Amino acid sequence: MAEPLIELRGVTKRFPGMKALDGVDFAIAPAEILCLAGENGSGKSTLIKIVSGVYDFDEGTLLIDGMPVAGLSPRAAIAAGIQVIYQDFSLFPSLTVAENLAMGRLLSEGRRFIAPAECRRLGTEALARLDVNIDLGARVGELSTADRQIVAIARALMSQTRLLIMDEPTTALTGREVDRLFALVREIRAKGIAVLFVSHKMREMLEISDRICVFRNGQKVEEGPTADFTEARITRAMTGQDLGHERYAWAGDASAEPRLRVQGLSVGELVRDVSLELRAGEIVGLSGLLGSGRTELALALFGMEPDYRGTILLDGKPLALASVPEAVEAGIAYVPEDRLSEGLFMSQSIARNVVASAIDRATRGPFLSDDAVTALAERTVTDMRIATTDVEKQVGKLSGGNQQRVIIGRWLLTGPRVLILNGPTVGVDVGSKAEIHRRIRELAVKDGLAVLMISDDVPELLHNCNRILLMHRGAIVDDLDPRDLQEDDIHTRLKTLR
Amino acid sequence: MNLFAKLMRRSETAVFLIVVAIMIVIGAINPAFWQADNLFNLLRANVVIGIMALSVLIVMVSGGIDVSFPAFAAAAMYLTVLAMNAYGYEGVVLPFIGATLIGLICGLANAFFIHTFRMIPLIVTLGSASVVRGLLLGLVGTSIVNIDRMPPALIAFGRSSLDVGGAKLSVMVFVYLGLAVLVGLLLTRTMTGRSIFAYGDDAESAKRVGFNTRRTVYVAYGLAGALAGFAGLLHASMIWLANPRDFVGYELDVIAAVVLGGASIFGGRGSVLGTLLGVFLLVLIKNSLIIMRIDNTWQGVVIGCVIVIATALTAWRDRKTLA
């Protein structure tokens, strides 16, 4: 390895009651793409914050270019060429692309006034460096997520950047956009810039990085060239155990009446003449590029697209799904894509979140019964193995994986017959993901629940589904049997759908 | 995108077209509407509400809301007029500086609470409005300074006008437009102005990029207070009267005008041009209600409806751009 750009030696960071980092040695060299792997709470974020000067540490040394640095501040980190792109990009939607790009430079020069021409010049330069074309005069709020990310990257590279830290940059991107991002990251490396990459997706880590560092409980547990790693090895290092990898097999009766039968379903121009069947105990995957109509299809099944055309039959009985309560009443449950904004009441307790969809089950007369609420919540916590000792804890304080379990658990209380999951493990770490998968399979096998799993995560679909449907421009174009397939087959198939 | 499509997507264009449509209708009903005297009077009626709207615009762009400006305006106006009388002061420059400073101090107090304790601007400004009004009436006095006791210099200043084709155009209109240009330049051409937008978009991000967000908050509320103070004294000089109970209910009109002009109550959006048009539209509506002899109480109903509809439209627009 070349002379490291930045190095940590025996760094320990304590928070009240825990060690977030415990004697960690870490180094990154110029022109290197390094992936940090680890579950939530393993110390990845703490490490990023130490390197970018946000956190101070308790023991150990931090070296930049081989020189020890004490008390690195965010400003000093930026001056040393360290730039972080946070998950939310920290862009300003109401300012133009040019202004967003130029702002950092103008601020660091202590400017008081801004000239549009100069913003435009700085913006043009910044985008030219990445060889991308985005309208400089557009407001950032009008751009797609992928374009916003490019603006964020372009902005980060405007100063003399030597290390670019990207925190889960692919979460909101579609497959093709991820390819474009990776091409960009490789170009950045070619300029001699180091890239520190945090991702939850194994496949991406293996594809993009030169080296992988795995963290668990604040310690670095494995480190090595990416070529030495496989998904199984990373998972083992992250969780400290082997997670089951057998695929889901459905042993139901294919001739029985389907639990859910959809015939000729259309929603405006977004979903066109879709027919599908879901049998009890089946876990059917649904994938497709963003805008393929898969979310609209799910929303129609959940009564949120009352203007749909076509027929929906549950156990042979036709349903008219004009509203969410009707869908819930019929036995359809939907776990939305964005649990933060669509699913959970973040400032409320686990118990209140759990009973939100099944309030009638926790009442005594016209009033809510605290005991019943607590009992239901405690049962859900046990069933879903939610990591908490207190059902009164705020949902916002749980990890992503546990939040997802709360929302799935909530829907199970409504006694659903069909469960629709949209991105069930987005932003959830590996251990939690396995746990959610285990529970979904258990529900399908034991309770005969019919599950429709919408996901971009191809391994997740292959692993858990007995059938996979691909959607494109509103229509189902493929009905695949995962037993015959490898990951790459599906990726190839998805790439041909443009 | 061609220029026309770009123009049509701006909320300013929509407001402008509505203004033109209303003017045509009123002009058709009563041709006297188009007389220079009437139009100049209309513009004159824009001045005080307009300056207050500029003050609210700044705060709204920063993602906050300010309901304390009427109280600050009343305090600045009344204290300054009393001081002028007490010292028998003959000029106007110093009094206006004084009124502006009073407003500025009040605004900075708002900023202090909002920034230091991360309080909700609505609550802080409701509170400060109540405190300032209470102190003014309780400690300073409740009696109205009538025209006979108003400082002559102030009256003369408020009366100054230009002769345009036989009709009198108040110089105050130019004061207003001058301030509007200054606020416009501040918001769009200075780093401080852009920091107010950035802060309104996302306070945390603004901090990360390196803006001094504390300064941003102080500038936004301080400036808002200063403009309110200035508008207060200007109002007194234009109506030759200083009433410590004045400006009650102005919150509604002014906030309505700013929202009409396309500013978002969620911050980050809004322009001076839009605000000027919004103010003009509001004054136009109120004026035509008076011409149509519609009762004062019903005017409140109309203005309330205008606010709700305009807010609904901007919220709908914001949701559409988010999707």
Automatic annotation (TrEMBL), chain A:
* Xref: Gene3D superfamilies: P-loop containing nucleotide triphosphate hydrolases
Question: Can you tell which superkingdom this protein's organism belongs to?
Answer: Bacteria
Q: Could you tell me which InterPro entries the record lists for this protein?
A: AAA+_ATPase, ABC_carbohydrate_import_ATPase, ABC_transporter-like_ATP-bd, ABC_transporter-like_CS, P-loop_NTPase
What keywords are assigned to this protein?
Answer: ATP-binding, Nucleotide-binding, Repeat, Sugar transport, Transport
| Domain called ABC transporter: residue spans | 6-242, 254-498
For the keyword ATP-binding, the answer is yes
Q: Name one GO molecular function term.
A: ATP hydrolysis activity
UniProt keyword annotation of Magnesium present: no
PANTHER family of this UniProt entry? CARBOHYDRATE TRANSPORT ATP-BINDING PROTEIN MG119-RELATED, GALACTOFURANOSE TRANSPORTER ATP-BINDING PROTEIN YTFR
Q: State the family named in the UniProt similarity comment for this chain.
A: Belongs to the ABC transporter superfamily.
Task: Name it.
Answer: Monosaccharide ABC transporter ATP-binding protein, CUT2 family (TC 3.A.1.2.-)
UniProtKB/TrEMBL annotation, chain B:
Q: Which UniProt keywords apply?
A: Cell inner membrane, Cell membrane, Membrane, Transmembrane, Transmembrane helix, Transport
Q: Name one GO molecular function term.
A: transmembrane transporter activity
Q: Is Glycoprotein there in the keyword field?
A: no
Cellular component (GO) terms are: plasma membrane
Query: Topology relative to the membrane, per the entry?
Result: Multi-pass membrane protein
Domain of life according to the entry: Bacteria
Which residue ranges traverse the bilayer?
Answer: 12-33, 39-60, 67-87, 93-113, 120-147, 167-187, 217-242, 254-285, 297-316
Please give the Pfam families that the UniProt record associates with this protein. BPD_transp_2
Q: What is its main location?
A: membrane
Compartments (UniProt record): Cell membrane
PANTHER family under this entry? ABC TRANSPORTER PERMEASE PROTEIN YPHD-RELATED, ABC TRANSPORTER PERMEASE PROTEIN YPHD-RELATED-RELATED
Return the protein name: Monosaccharide ABC transporter membrane protein, CUT2 family (TC 3.A.1.2.-)
Which organism is this protein's natural source? Answer: Ancylobacter rudongensis
